[in-house]
Amino acid sequence: MDGIDDIDKQLxxxxxxxxxxxxxxxxxxxxxxxxxxxxxxxRLEGLGFIKQYVAVLDKGLLGQPxxxxxxxxxxxxxxxxxxxxxEEVQKLEEVQECYHMAGQVDFLLKIHVGSLNDYHDFVKYKxxxxxNIGVLNSTFVLKEIKxxxxxxxx
Amino acid sequence: MDGIDDIDKQLxxxxxxxxxxxxxxxxxxxxxxxxxxxxxxxRLEGLGFIKQYVAVLDKGLLGQPxxxxxxxxxxxxxxxxxxxxxEEVQKLEEVQECYHMAGQVDFLLKIHVGSLNDYHDFVKYKxxxxxNIGVLNSTFVLKEIKxxxxxxxx
DNA sequence: ATCCATGCCGAAAATTTTTCTACAAAGTGT
DNA sequence: ACACTTTGTAGAAAAATTTTCGGCATGGAT
Lengths: 154, 154
Known about the structure:
homodimer, about 150 residues, alpha+beta, Arc Repressor Mutant, subunit A, Alpha-Beta Plaits, 4-stranded antiparallel sheet, 5 helices, DNA-binding
């Protein structure tokens, strides 16, 4: 947490919940005037604490109500195969997240699709087309219990 | 995708990548003038397609470089135990996401901490304190291969 | 004690958001 | 075919916000 103070932290907490808060509103919540708040935001952007601003959409309304986690293990662990897998995964738009994991399984993928049928097609015609996949194990999300968009800031 | 057209979809694609784009910039990219773009955004917000706007922070700079996925199974599956677990998980600030899953394991948790030590403390003093947990299986993220912030919009 | 750096304030300028009126195209009912 | 309504867009004006800038305090260093 190099070089940021409690005011900066509070600013980050507020902005990661609502990026549309105006400098004016932020200033009043922080007990400052416009200028210092404005400068702090620019500084936090410059330092990389704030990476970007995004609109959060409703995946249900977008027609992708199904979320699954898919565990993938490679048959062989040559660097070339690993690189190839990572490269191919980037291209699959259904894959929202992909992590290289420690432990039994090599990769964990988070996938969004519109229906079970779409998931079937995704696995059969896209994912399993990637070379050298050994194990492929999918589990479905029944319910989202918690999904924080921001991080905990100590 | 009830009641939104291709222009709306393109608008959503742009905004979920960069919510700071001005109406002017959006208008020029969409080949429209300010007013229709402005009204479309308000409409998409009203319909719930756009849920909120957030700043995306850098978890490494915030001192939480470690991500783990933790699979949890309950010993007994009475509704009261399930409810209690879901309730307690909400309170744990290290837990960024929690899903009730189909399959062998009951819950999947995504957790952010600052160090392996922090993770140890989290499991020992917080997570495992919740009643009725049977299996608890943690796997660490070695590398983030892909992390789309937005959804794929067909 | 003076100088310099840092952070904040307040006001002005630039830009954007928001509102409002009007026009054109598409669909509906007579 | 005609008038009517609805929908979506354009353009301009008003309101609000962002951005810039000069100045004032506080604190540390020389």
